[in-house]
Automatic annotation (TrEMBL):
<keyword id="KW-0648">Protein biosynthesis</keyword>
<feature type="binding site">
    <location>
        <position position="284"/>
    </location>
    <ligand>
        <name>L-histidine</name>
    </ligand>
</feature>
<dbReference type="GO" id="GO:0016740">
    <property type="term" value="F:transferase activity"/>
</dbReference>
<feature type="binding site">
    <location>
        <position position="157"/>
    </location>
    <ligand>
        <name>L-histidine</name>
    </ligand>
</feature>
<dbReference type="InterPro" id="IPR004516">
    <property type="entry name" value="HisRS/HisZ"/>
</dbReference>
<comment type="similarity">
    <text>Belongs to the class-II aminoacyl-tRNA synthetase family.</text>
</comment>
<dbReference type="InterPro" id="IPR045864">
    <property type="entry name" value="aa-tRNA-synth_II/BPL/LPL"/>
</dbReference>
<dbReference type="GO" id="GO:0005737">
    <property type="term" value="C:cytoplasm"/>
</dbReference>
<dbReference type="GO" id="GO:0006427">
    <property type="term" value="P:histidyl-tRNA aminoacylation"/>
</dbReference>
<keyword id="KW-0030">Aminoacyl-tRNA synthetase</keyword>
<dbReference type="GO" id="GO:0005524">
    <property type="term" value="F:ATP binding"/>
</dbReference>
<feature type="domain" description="Aminoacyl-transfer RNA synthetases class-II family profile">
    <location>
        <begin position="34"/>
        <end position="368"/>
    </location>
</feature>
<dbReference type="InterPro" id="IPR004154">
    <property type="entry name" value="Anticodon-bd"/>
</dbReference>
<keyword id="KW-0067">ATP-binding</keyword>
<dbReference type="Pfam" id="PF13393">
    <property type="entry name" value="tRNA-synt_His"/>
</dbReference>
<keyword id="KW-0436">Ligase</keyword>
<dbReference type="Pfam" id="PF03129">
    <property type="entry name" value="HGTP_anticodon"/>
</dbReference>
Length: 441
């Protein structure tokens, strides 16, 4: 039998066949993870618009910015948000570092802000204190419209006031954010989850009611029924919603102080003329809420929400501070802008001035001219390579510039430039200083 011999040598020119699976795996390495999104340059102006609106509203309400880490100790969220919540049970991204410490990517902004206030002893300064943040949050959930595993949130926390006026001010602040973006037709849905004593009494009544027909509940609600009965009120399953429609109402179990606070919130909202309605089943999905909870709604769907959390600071080892806050998902807001036709125009996206040298000899002038233009307050750019008039005009129009400024080496000593107004077509030869004086800001 003839020996098969050694395999043929593979040179650098030998074609290598790649299987479809290998190609798919290779391609998959360079696509973004599911539940995340790129903000491309064509869309970035929309994000600037939302962020600018958030910062304007924060400034008008004397809220100062706070930036907390993306990583916190996992226990911070399990203690404050609640062990039986969907965030802690199903959605939190956790990891163990090399020191064996359990960390979590930030799923929401309130707990980290509270930790920072306690650690930084901000409560020792003037109160009440309003803080805001804009940043990414991480939750492992099924991606959908406006629901991403990495999403961006604008949030506000008001600390140090027990007044129902503070609750109403936050609702007005959230509505003002949407108003700045041109969104109309919003309403506020308001509820109250009461204090610890109210909830304890109500939880017993709700638990007793739901156990009478427990087989009608979904699997999650059966578990919540034993761990935290109020979480069942947040269920969206039709069978559970139908059963809960006849359940005892939490509003009937409120103690006198909580009932008085709810009445104060209503009176404050009335004084502002804000559109709102009371929802006895509104509880929100986080355990730290006490008293007022609310959602901003459009067309019957919640677009943002918040509430009061008077027990959180003491629970985290700080002083017993009264506090309330809200959070707005900016991806969801972007969808709302599209749905309501409130998307703003991009406006001019090109530079004010497009600078092109006509020859290699003129190239050394490009950077000093660009610097002079920018110091005069004009956005300026250049291909940094020489081109003829036809090519220069073509690239300037493509860049969306307002002016084309052409540099020729023969104009170097006199500091002259050739300027073409791309709106009118008027072309003028003038000193650079004259152009800066005429068009600078």
């Amino acid at each position: 039998m003839r020996s098969p011999g050694p395999p043929p040598a593979v040179s650098c020119c030998t074609p290598i066949l790649i299987t479809r699976r290998e190609k798919a795996l290779k391609t998959k390495e360079w696509i973004r993870p599911r539940g995340t999104a790129d903000v491309l340059p064509e869309e970035s102006f929309l994000w600037h618009r939302m962020e600018n609106a958030a910062r304007k509203v924060a400034r008008l309400h004397h809220a100062k910015e706070i930036r907390t880490p993306l990583l916190e100790y996992e226990e911070l969220y399990s203690r404050s948000v609640g062990d039986a919540t969907d965030i802690v049970e199903k959605e939190m991204y956790t990891l163990t570092d090399r020191g064996g410490r359990q960390l979590a990517l930030r799923p929401e902004g309130t707990a980290g802000t509270a930790r920072a206030i306690i650690q930084g002893r901000l409560f020792s300064g003037p109160l009440p204190l309003k803080l805001y943040y804009i940043g990414p949050m991480f939750r492992y959930e099924r991606p959908g419209q406006g629901r991403l595993r990495q999403h961006t949130q604008f949030g506000v926390e008001a600390v140090g006031s027990a007044s129902p006026l503070a609750d109403a001010e936050l609702m007005a602040m959230a509505l003002r954010f949407y108003e700045e973006l041109g969104v109309t037709g919003l309403t506020v849905s308001v509820g109250s989850v009461g204090c610890v004593d109210c909830r304890r009494d109500y939880a017993a009544k709700l638990q007793s009611y739901l156990r009478q027909d427990a087989e009608a509940l979904c699997t999650d609600c059966l578990r919540r029924l034993e761990l935290n009965p109020l979480r069942t009120l947040d269920c969206k399953q039709p069978g559970c919603r139908s059963r809960l429609g006849q359940a005892p109402q939490l509003s009937a179990s409120l103690c006198p102080p909580c009932r008085s606070h709810a009445g104060g919130v209503d009176a404050a909202l009335d004084s502002l003329g804000l559109p709102y309605e009371r929802d006895p089943l509104l509880v929100r999905g986080l355990d730290y809420y006490t008293g007022t909870v609310f959602e901003i709604q459009h067309g019957g769907s919640a677009v943002s929400g918040g509430g009061r959390y008077n027990a959180l600071y003491a629970e985290l080892g700080g002083p017993p501070l009264h506090a309330a806050g809200f959070g707005v998902g900016l991806e969801r807001t972007l969808l709302l802008l599209r749905d309501t036709g409130a998307l703003p125009d991009a406006g001019p996206q090109g530079p004010d001035v497009w600078v092109v040298p006509l020859s290699e000899a003129a190239c050394p002038r490009v950077l000093p001219v660009l610097d002079a233009l920018r110091r005069a307050g004009m956005a300026a750019d250049s291909p940094l390579e020489p081109a003829g008039w036809k090519g220069a005009l073509k690239t300037a129009v493509r860049a969306g510039a307002s002016y084309l400024l052409v540099l020729g080496e023969e104009e170097d000593e006199a500091g002259m430039v050739e300027v073409k107004d791309l709106a009118t077509g008027l072309q003028t030869r003038m000193p650079l200083d004259a152009f800066l004086y005429r068009c600078g800001r």
